[in-house]
Amino acid sequence: MPNIAQSRFAERICLVTGAATGIGRAVAWRMAHEGACVAVLDINGDQLEITRKGIEARGAKSHAITADVSVADQVRAAVQQVEIHLGPIDVLVSNAGVPIVGAIADLSLDEWDRTFAINTRSTFVVVQAVLSGMRKRRRGVISITASSAALVGEVGSAPYAPSKAALVNFAKQVAVENAHLGIRCNSVCPGWVDTPFNDPSFANDDERRETVQRQVPMGREGTPDELAAAIAFACSDDASYMTGHTLVVDGGLTLGPT
Ligand SMILES: NC(=O)c1ccc[n+]([C@@H]2O[C@H](COP(=O)([O-])OP(=O)(O)OC[C@H]3O[C@@H](n4cnc5c(N)ncnc54)[C@H](O)[C@@H]3O)[C@@H](O)[C@H]2O)c1
Predict the structure, then answer these.
(1) What is the pLDDT of residues 172-219, one digit of tens each?
(2) 69 lines ligand 1 (CB under 6 A)
(3) Distance from the CA of 24 to the center of ligand 1, in angstroms?
(4) pLDDT in tens, 139-169
(5) Nearest CA-CA partner of 86 in 127, 41, 47
(6) Which ligand 1 atom minimizes the distance to the CA of 19?
(7) 13-246: which CATH topology?
(8) 3-state SS class at 187
């Protein structure tokens, strides 16, 4: 963890979804390290408890909620719970996601709907729930984790990539509707990142290394901490004039053929 001179999130209350592992956990710990009170939400309660303990170990207040982001009532109730336990939410990181991929010819309607329910509709629900308070207070920042897959055509990436492409545009809609109220919203697009998310994509470590070296100009996967740094930047006052932006953090993956 880098040594941060300022506490960019001091006194701020943050909610991070999909925070049981990977990028979401790294974001939660980074924001705690920088002074935030951090609420975390995930379907995986056991791993979420490790994230919560890590927040407290960094001297920050925490609140953990086990919930399924694809169930709207659970998400709305979670937002209410966070506001009761920690206070009004200043920063939302909508980050939960699943990697459902396959050839279009073989995909079922259920796979399409489930992907959009978890990756896309859930973001609308949590953003809407958090926005009502932010709009009343005329302040707030939102970061939506999309994907570099949202920006390109890629064999076998439906329905995952379209579900993330919708988020890139949704961040712009949130930004343009709320900019005059002092509320910012950006999307962050990771490329290959070393988290459990990609485990099903590769048969073994050698295949993983070979694929990443072939596709990524920087020749390696990103780390959860590198993504947390970008998301923390987007959510901090360092990015105070940035809204509706698509922040690509992919080691050059989307630059074109290497
Ligand atoms: N790892 C990558 O290479 C990569 C690349 C591009 C985008 N992303 C995006 O980054 C985000 C975080 O992924 P990660 O790489 O940290 O993977 P991860 O698997 O470590 O984290 C995803 C989290 O979402 C949670 N989740 C899944 N379904 C849920 C549900 N229905 N309700 C609540 N929580 C749920 C999981 O339990 C998990 O903790 C995802 O949105 C993913 O699409 C990841």
Answers:
(1) 999 999 999 999 999 999 999 999 999 888 899 999 999 999 999 999
(2) yes
(3) 7
(4) 999 999 999 999 999 889 999 999 999 999 9
(5) 41
(6) 39
(7) Rossmann fold (3.40.50)
(8) strand
